[in-house]
Amino acid sequence: ETQMDIEEGADIVMVKPGISYLDIVREIKNISNVPVAVYQVSGEYAMIKAASERGWLNHDAIMLEQTTAIKRAGADLIASYFAKDISILLNQ
Q1: Tell me: the pLDDT tens digits for 42-52?
Q2: CA distances from residue 47 to 14, 33, 54 in whole angstroms, order as listed
Q3: Which terminus of the chain has fewer Cβ atoms in its 10 Å neighbourhood, N or C?
Q4: How many Å is the maximal CA-CA distance in the chain?
Q5: Secondary structure (DSSP) of 34-65
Q6: How far is it, in rounded angstroms, from Cα 73 to Cα 23?
């Protein structure tokens, strides 16, 4: 489907949900020259928020780890509900 989108002239392709499809992100990156965007959906955001509120994980650490994993998979652009939090954390 992505290849067909690219052949039809897509300027960018998007994969969502982000964490669940990192392998797909890598495959698309390997076969195309268009930018790959990844959308970290609200469910991924909510799971991290809920788990960190219960003390099950470190919010900042997992937020950065997931973002890093998305980037390592090949994302050129990441759309995330954590964008503001990540920006603040990285600029400290």
Answers
A1: 999 999 999 99
A2: 21, 33, 11
A3: C
A4: 47
A5: S-EEEEE-HHHHHHHHHHHHTTSS-HHHHHHH
A6: 7
Q: Which pTM does this prediction carry?
A: 0.87
| 65-69: long-range contacts, CB 8 A cutoff, minimum separation 24 | 66/18, 66/19, 66/40, 67/40, 69/19, 69/22
pLDDT in tens, 60-83: 999 999 999 999 999 999 999 999
* Tokens read off for 13: 């392709």
User: Which amino acid is present at 52?
Assistant: S
- Is the Cβ–Cβ distance between 40 and 78 less than 8 Å? yes
